[in-house]
Amino acid sequence: MTAAAPGRPKQGTAPSGSVGALNIKLGCIADDFTGATDLANNLVRAGMRVVQTIGVPTRPLGAEVDAVVVALKSRTVAPAEAVRQSLAALEWLQAQGAQQIYFKYCSTFDSTATGNIGPVTEALMDALGVDFTIATPAFPDNKRTVFKGYLFVGDVLLNESGMQNHPLTPMTDPNLVRVMQSQSRRKVGLIDHQVVAQGEAVIRERIQQLRADGVGVAVVDAVSNDDLLRMGPALKDMRLLTAGSGVAIGLPANFGLLPSSQAGQLPPASGLQAVVSGSCSLATLRQVADFLRTGRPAFVVDALRLAAGDDVVAEALAWAAALLSGGPVLVYSTAETQTIKSVQGLLGAEDAGLLVERCMANIARGLVRLGVRQLVVAGGETSGACVQALGIMQMQMGPQIDPGVPWCHAVSELAPDGLHLTLKSGNFGSDDFFSKAFTVLSSERPR
Question: What is the pTM (predicted TM-score) of this model?
Answer without folding.
Answer: 0.78
